[in-house]
Amino acid sequence: MAGTPLDLQILNTLAAILLLLSFSMLAQRRIVTMVNLLATQGAILCLATVLLAWRTGENHLYLSAALTLALKVILLPWLLHRLIRRLDVYWDTETMINAPSTMLIGLLVVIFAFGLAQPISALASTATRSTIGIAIAVILLSFLTMITRRKAMSQVVGFLSMENGLFFGAMSTTYGMPMVVELGVALDVLVAMLVLGVFFFQIREQFDSLDLHHLESLREDE
Amino acid sequence: MNTLAAVTQLLEIVFAILAAPVFVGWVNQCRAWLQNRRAPSLLQPYRGIHKLFHKEAVIAENASGLFRAAPYVVFATMVAAAAIIPSMGTRLPLTTAADSIALVGLLATARVFLALAAMDVGTAFGTLGARREMMLGFLAEPALLMVIFVAAMISQTTSLPMIAEHLSGEEMALYPSLAFTAVAFTLVLLAENARIPIDNPATHLELTMIHEAMLLEYSARHLALMEWGAALKLFNYACIGLTLFVPFGVATEAQGPVGLLLAVPVLGIKLLVAGAALAVLETVSAKLRVFRAPEFLATAFLFAVLGLLVHLLLGA
Amino acid sequence: MLTPASSPLAACLALLAAWGVVGLAGLVRPRSVEFAGRTLFPLGALCGLGLAVVAVRSIALPPEQIELLVGLPDLPFHMRLDPLAAVFLALLGAASAGISLFSAGYFRKGEGALPGLLCLEYHLFLASMGLVILADDAYAFMVAWETMALSSYFLVTTQHRIPDIRRAGFLYLLIAHLGAIGILLSFGVMQGGSWQFTFDAMRAAQLDPQWASVAFLLAFFGFGAKAGLVPLHVWLPEAHPAAPSPVSALMSGVMLKTAIYGVLRVTFDLLGQPQWWWGLVALGVGLFSAFYGVVFAAVQTDMKRLLAWSSIENVGIIFAAIGITVVFHGLGMSALASLSLIAALYHCVNHAFMKSLLFLGTGAVLHATGERNLGRLGGLIHRMPWVAWLTLVGALAIAGLPPLNGFVSEWLLLQAFLFADTVPRPFINMLLPIGAALVALCAALAGYVMVKFFGVIFLGQPREPNLAQAHDAGPFERAGLVWLALACVVLGILPVQVIGEFDQVSRALLATELGQDAAQWWLLAPTPARGASYGPLAFLLAGGILTGLTVLGVRAVYHQRVRRGPAWDCGFVRLDARMQDTAEGFGQPIRHIFQPFFGMSRELPTPFDAAPSYRVTVTDRIWAAGYERVGRSVRRVADLVARLQQGRISTYLLYSFVTLIVLLWIVL
To answer: What is the pTM of this model?
Structure first.
């Protein structure tokens, strides 16, 4: 460890913090805190992109970082906070399985992701290749968050966190995606947010609550 | 075994025995500052211990030899633990006889004897305290072992002085795995030393007690030894944390006597900061209900395992 | 002509025969307790001691084989004494010496079976275990194995007039035979086409990897049933409380180790090249067993069931150690394989002494008070100080506290797990350190269980008035307990010598050894490159000196005045025995935290009860989900088959007629 230069150590630290944030999101019950954690994730991603851009000299990564900052740290969390206030949904206390089991499954998922990543790390050629495992772990943990939640809002936060993980993974393996792809993904996410926002209002109109198990009754007579 | 090593060893033991009560006093002082109160003087714990030693010991009629022997055993194990933690120097002869796993074993010995002594008189509170203490113990011990494991894996040895030398010898390196385990270690420290949020050291409500409940039947010199032993335990845990996570300033073999002279004030400063941090943590938390304590420790264990996994993946 | 003087193997066989003779001598005067107790059992203890001495001497000698002309004309018994067998024989001899000494004072009249008969069964049990260890062909092995199972069955059902004990014995015999089928089939696979059932033939046979795996899994199943691995463990918590305490001690301390010997023999000796994934099977099952056992031990209310579940835990840990040995050996990491094999062997030997000591302690308590239920004991340290203090040594040893022996094997195992991250397989190198965390959890829980065990029985106030008549153990019983406690202490303080002996086994089975520097006899440093070391003697001396200095210091500076008074209890005056924790109460945190493992039923009092009572029963889910279901389906199949039994003669004649027609059709 002593041989690696300081910026790589900082990158590794940022990756570890990202993992920690995903785990905290898994355990969080308060939706406002989840959105704040999401914003912090975006900030960490932005920092990591800037650091990587400085190290490798690829200038398009600076643009990427600026986009991340604008979208993931400022715009999306603001949108989500507005939605929370208008929909009046602050807590998501019931989950599918209880907290200790969720944590245990999360741990197993992390082990799985790290185990997968070890041979891949050996093959990749970028400086950040060892953080691929963390990217996969963040994706899987966000997926788990989406699965174990009842309120629609938490699931959206999980979805966005998954996108963060994807972004981090892309950065680790290939120093970011081509600009076109990135802009396309960013636009997709924005559109998805707007559509989902509309959707939420419709759900609440229909069922008077954003609890998703109302959507499970597929027939009228159930 | 040269004289410097012997001097380091002796100095560590004496410093630990003498400084532990004032460390507790310092934590109380910081807490009082944060809570806008006036604390008793820093030397008050010494006066308390001195007063207790003077008193005549009253022992229950049905207490056995185990009850009378336990305070001496607990105190001796805590002193032995202080002897093998490299708080001042890494040249400690006794550490060849006991590495970090043996250190955890020593702490477990003290805990077992304390619990057995609490069960000896057969009161409701004593057995309550014993049960709760063992419950915290069996959850905290694996977490502590995992924390030590991560440090041992990084340094490729379980010997604490060698871990300290390895970690302080590197250039200022950031170890994310050690950051995770530092969080885990803090949680374990709070639980094992009966601090808020697990146990309130200043409470008088017996049903909420964990550590205090085990000491209710003790008086005079036995109680003094037990309280001194508890202060030593907190001091030892603080020193373990400083060795694993902030090992800079510890006198290594190459530095000779000058290093040792410098190490003492460095240790003092580190302990001052650690005590203040502990007071801050205690002030911002509220005491948890007892049945939530396992969740607290499970979180510590989780952090420790995460630290281990991050180390295996990132090599850091 | 091989004489006992020249050949250690012949000497061992002679001592085993001596046990047989001592047993048969019991039939001379079957009803006399004095004869069996004062004369024969001490003789048996002496034979055991001799066996231990001879075995220890022969660990370093090259292996030796003998063919005995016992048995069937074409199938003589082959016997072999090599380092592995010598270690386990030494375990058998030394542990049984202490247990036999204790039994000399333990067995009394009116306990169900005649003392002379008991003597016969007991010594036959010992001799058959010795034969299992020495056997060098499948035939001798199975004969000795069956004798071991049957003699222990009769010992378990000593008090056969009680239906619960009969039921426990039946369950024990059933699962023992299930295991025996597995072992037999495994031997069948291992002979590899030569149809020679000697172990030499099996060593020479070259099996396909698939057949080798089949043989390993069958042997694992068979020996695991005898050792008490989950889910074949259900007989242990029933049989151990049912048997008399010395028998429980023998079963837990020694018989379970013969199963471990079997696994070691099959995996490393007969199946030459173990595949590394077998180790994962052993590791997984072992860790789960260990965890399951200790969690159940923490919630028991019967002192012998608690110890039985604790045995399941320790066997699980031994299998976990064997598991990582196989993993390391299969992946070519020989130094670590040697370390973990020695950890496994050390834990075997430790557990034999620690568990025997505890079981014999409970035997003394049972004799003095007549109670097995933890809810009716308490405060016995005042009435039975010898038993209490010696049992404390055993309890502290099992809890893994330095400087006793339990800590040494735990230290070695954790050292082996610690360097498992160098394993060159992606998932395994992450799962193994987590296995270390589980081992640490089991060790910490073992401490919990031992505090409960010792605290509820010996400390506190007596929960029943008749406990005031409890008496301490007699001279023979004390001698047995002291011998075992001394063994625990010595094994803890002199690990380097013991590991020097185990190195021979490691060299024989794995072709590597730890190679400790004999000059530093007080310091255990198995992997000098790692820098970790443990010096128990220095540890003990330092601890003793510090304690002594504290006592002297306090006495010199202050005073030693003591006054006795009633317990303070925060000023509450009417303290009685019911206010202290019960066994259920002490286990409540475990019940609460590990709820999914238990099947619990509770009876809660209502506010309108005249005599309110609270009862909680904890049952094993594996029994309900697994065994009862299997039992029901077997019953159903049996009922279906019973329909064949019509009772009318014409139907039976019809059966014969149909069979005849079918046979004629096939032949012609």
So the answer is: 0.91
